[in-house]
UniProtKB/TrEMBL annotation:
<protein>
    <recommendedName>
        <fullName>EamA domain-containing protein</fullName>
    </recommendedName>
</protein>
<feature type="transmembrane region" description="Helical">
    <location>
        <begin position="33"/>
        <end position="52"/>
    </location>
</feature>
<feature type="transmembrane region" description="Helical">
    <location>
        <begin position="240"/>
        <end position="260"/>
    </location>
</feature>
<feature type="domain" description="EamA">
    <location>
        <begin position="146"/>
        <end position="280"/>
    </location>
</feature>
<comment type="similarity">
    <text>Belongs to the EamA transporter family.</text>
</comment>
<feature type="transmembrane region" description="Helical">
    <location>
        <begin position="210"/>
        <end position="228"/>
    </location>
</feature>
<dbReference type="Pfam" id="PF00892">
    <property type="entry name" value="EamA"/>
</dbReference>
<feature type="transmembrane region" description="Helical">
    <location>
        <begin position="64"/>
        <end position="84"/>
    </location>
</feature>
<feature type="transmembrane region" description="Helical">
    <location>
        <begin position="177"/>
        <end position="198"/>
    </location>
</feature>
<feature type="transmembrane region" description="Helical">
    <location>
        <begin position="146"/>
        <end position="165"/>
    </location>
</feature>
<feature type="transmembrane region" description="Helical">
    <location>
        <begin position="121"/>
        <end position="140"/>
    </location>
</feature>
<dbReference type="InterPro" id="IPR000620">
    <property type="entry name" value="EamA_dom"/>
</dbReference>
<dbReference type="InterPro" id="IPR037185">
    <property type="entry name" value="EmrE-like"/>
</dbReference>
<keyword id="KW-0472">Membrane</keyword>
<dbReference type="InterPro" id="IPR050638">
    <property type="entry name" value="AA-Vitamin_Transporters"/>
</dbReference>
<feature type="domain" description="EamA">
    <location>
        <begin position="4"/>
        <end position="136"/>
    </location>
</feature>
<keyword id="KW-1133">Transmembrane helix</keyword>
Amino acid sequence: MRFKYILLLVLANMLWAGNFLAGRILRVSMGPFTLNGIRWVVSAAILLVIVHQRRERIPFRYEWKAFLLLGFMGMFLFSSLTYWGLTMVPAGEAGLLSGFTPLAVLVAGFFIAGDKVRIGQWAMVALSIVGEILLLGGGASASGSLWGASLLIVAALAWGIYTALGRRYRHRFSPLVLTAGAAVGGAIPSVLLGLWNLTTHPIHLTVESGLALAYVSTLASVVAFMMWSTGVNRLGSGTAAPFLNLLPVFTAVLAMLLLHESLSTIQIEGGLIVIAGAAGSGFMRSPATLSDQAPVESMLE
């Protein structure tokens, strides 16, 4: 049975890796903000159906500020910046940059949620920053690529803030209600910016891009979170944390296999340093510091 939940953690990261590839494919079919708007409208609708089936209620009337804030940071800012960055940065490089996300969660948790951080973990943050610098220097030879890579780093910071805020609200909402409410809150600015993006980047869907759009709206948004949360709930956050470091590895490998991208030696070295820093920090974590990394409860039962 333990193997089953480990497999769910692995598959969740694989689906999240596919999100980077899909975002890269969709850059020629629509603007990044239009993509994000469509993604979260569909995902929010699916999550609302799940909430209804589980007979829970989202208190939008009384907690709309909390859901708008969570949605702005996690679904709007994080996803918009990620897709925007993917218009300028190859998926493999973007995946390696995503290795900074666990460290962003650590730092945001310290400043926002008051999580305890060990001295060794700060050392791992510094190590990952060195890796990020190597990544930027090794792959961002053009100004557009450097700007895109910077957007992806800011996106990681936005996810860290979202996760830390989620920890502050974890006693007020169930994980499912928190995530569904944030998805609705994030869909609002995502749709508004997406409609504006349509004026400059009309939609031109092909069969390939249509499948990619369906993928990011369902498998990468809802199914992956369900898999991850089930694994976390069964195995514990301390066991699940290191599995997050599979995301940049899966993304880089899939980008090379499916999109025929390549990575420079210095990019690979920088990515490995980032992953090493994140993994080192994860293994130093106390058992209860990552339960809100993906704030969705177990829904596969």
